[in-house]
Write a structure and sequence with these properties.
single chain, Rossmann fold, six-stranded parallel beta sheet, 12 strands
Length: 346
């Protein structure tokens, strides 16, 4: 099979873990997966020339920008005719469907967030209805998609357990670790007071935040509260600095759609997890004894204290998490299943 992966951008985490990381495994299985994206990006702001044109002519800068985006997508639209299946991550296309209809290629629509809350329910429902197969990242998303499509498969977000794996090097301190994007650092605010209190009571403990940029919601002192610059090349090394991985979340319609990628990263590296029992997090916690699901500040504090005082328990939970990641949430586990689903489609 020749499969075209339509992604938001090569730097988008969802694109990377939902589609891009399957390029090599698919090739090893005798199939071709090529990931491409539209230029300019769908969500790109109007260029400077469009704003200047608006000052001169009164033509709205966003209208000019959308015209250029529509023209810019034509080469990739033409290329789509050379593939057997289009595997699309989220709503990356502009809302011009004429050419997609002419191509008549089977479309697999893949989403791993409650995108209808941000992208618009009408647009998401239309894309689900018009696609031939739906990959939903968890049961919450699948239930939503099933209202508009009869062929919905739950395809969890996965980790490459060959790239992310435990290290034999042990941390010098008890390191509480969090990894994610700039925007998602806001979720640390829910347990900020607990974290600071714990660090004040345990001078040999540290909080390490790994992201693309630091958010100013934590008092970074680069001693007990440290920031690490994320990169794909050093991701495994950074996570292996952690003694425990955390993922606090509020329980909202948006967070119930999250697919636990942070949690899976920690598990792949053999780290015990402390995660809010929301959505997919709750399901994974029930599958193995790999960490705790604190719901209150008291629960968070008790869990942190317990893990700090019991290295043997940390190791036991970490091993269980690694085992589950390999057996149920790894790229290797899901590559043949995804190929099977797509072969059935054509």
């Amino acid at each position: 099979m020749k499969i075209l992966g339509l992604i938001s951008s090569p730097f988008d985490p969802a694109s990377r873990v939902r589609i891009q990381q399957y390029e090599v495994p698919f090739q090893s299985s005798g199939h071709q997966l090529r990931c491409k994206y539209y230029r300019p990006l769908r969500d790109a702001n109007p260029a400077g020339w469009a704003k200047n044109l608006q000052k001169i002519s009164g033509i709205n800068a966003w209208r000019s920008s959308d015209l250029i985006k529509s023209i810019g997508r034509m080469p990739l639209l033409i290329q789509q005719s050379g593939y057997d299946i289009i595997w699309q991550n989220r709503l990356i296309q502009l809302q011009h469907l004429f050419w997609e209809k002419q191509l008549r290629k089977p479309v697999v629509f893949d989403f791993d967030d409650a995108i209808w809350l941000q992208e618009g329910e009408k647009q998401v429902q239309q894309k689900i209805t018009r696609s031939q197969l739906i990959f939903a990242g968890n049961s919450y998303l699948a239930d939503y998609a099933a209202r508009f499509h009869k062929d919905v498969r739950i395809v969890p977000t996965t980790v490459d357990t060959a790239m992310l794996q435990p290290s034999s090097k042990k941390a010098d301190h008890f390191n509480i670790g969090w990894i994610g994007t700039y925007q998602n650092q806001q979720y640390l605010d829910a347990i900020k007071d607990v974290l600071i209190q714990f660090l004040q009571q345990n001078k040999d403990a540290r909080l390490i935040v790994v992201a693309d940029h630091p958010m100013g919601n934590l008092p970074y002192d680069e001693k007990q509260i440290q920031f690490r610059q994320w990169s794909a090349a050093n991701e495994n090394e950074l996570i292996n600095e952690f003694s425990v991985g955390i993922m606090p979340l509020p329980d909202t319609a948006w967070t119930r759609g999250k697919c636990s990628y942070k949690m899976l990263q920690y598990m792949a590296c053999g780290k015990p997890v402390l995660v809010s029992p929301v959505g997919k997090n709750r399901e994974i916690l029930q599958e193995a004894d790999l960490g705790f699901g604190p719901s209150t500040e008291t629960d968070w504090m008790k869990s942190l204290q317990l893990l700090k005082q019991d290295p043997a328990l940390c190791n036991q939970l970490g091993l269980a998490g690694r085992k589950l990641a390999e057996e149920k949430y790894s790229v290797n586990r899901w590559t043949p299943l995804l190929l099977q689903y797509m072969e059935e489609l054509i």
